[in-house]
Amino acid sequence: MLNFVICDDKQFVIDKLTKMLEKIFVMKDLDAKVGYTSKNPYDIIDYVEKNPTNVLILDIDLEASLNGLQLANRIRKKNKSVYIIFITAHSEFVFVSFHSKTFDFIQKPVTLERLSQTIGLLFEDISGSPKSFINIDKRNKTFIDQNEITFIKKDAMKLVFNTIDNQYETYNSFSKIQHSLPSNFIRCHKSYIVNINNILDIQSNNMIHFKNHTYCEIGPKYKENLLEVIKNYGNHTNNLDSFI
Prior knowledge:
Elements: E1 2-7, H1 11-27, E2 32-38, H2 41-50, E3 55-59, H3 68-78, E4 83-88, H4 94-97, E5 104-107, H5 112-128, E6 133-137, E7 142-145, E8 149-155, E9 158-163, E10 167-171, H6 174-180, E11 185-189, E12 192-195, E13 199-202, E14 207-210, E15 215-217, H7 220-233, H8 238-243
Parallel strand pairs: 1-2, 1-3, 3-4, 4-5
Antiparallel strand pairs: 6-7, 8-9, 8-12, 9-10, 11-12, 13-14, 14-15
Helix pairs in contact: 2-3
């Protein structure tokens, strides 16, 4: 599920954008939500640093010590992949806004038709881009950021994608998914593929614990290869160091 965040200094604008986005998500059958809104740019920075965020909708002319452009630049330094959409009543900002790797610029007042067009193009871009998103359900346009996946479980004919804050089920080929993932995804069991970037600890009973307090097991057949990959990948914690 894609997470949208809105920042505008007018609450009625935030409320209007939220309602329009929720309507667009339903109309286009998109797996997305408005996860957070605020009039305070510093609250936005704090939220984005602590929560997976895919799309930012920012007013440029904020009544705060940070304007929308400065806010975008601060977030962009730490989050290279987030989509940024600017909204403003001042068209003179349009060229400056694209210095922040902007996806789109929408002039106020924002209409449902104009916002719907942008959201449609955004999902098309995600679907066709080489970024970290994968589409696990093309019919319902369900996109998952690979960085948020902890592990993938094979459950009969279904695949269960466990992410940091959610769980998704789909019908797909386990081997096909395995070969489409980057090198930090490793088979650790006949029924599990793990994202080693999100491993918190490996217990002596061959249980893998993740950052969101979920866990899965290691199969004896896959243990040696898993530990070798972790050792060479160079992204493991002290707990993993002691285990390998």
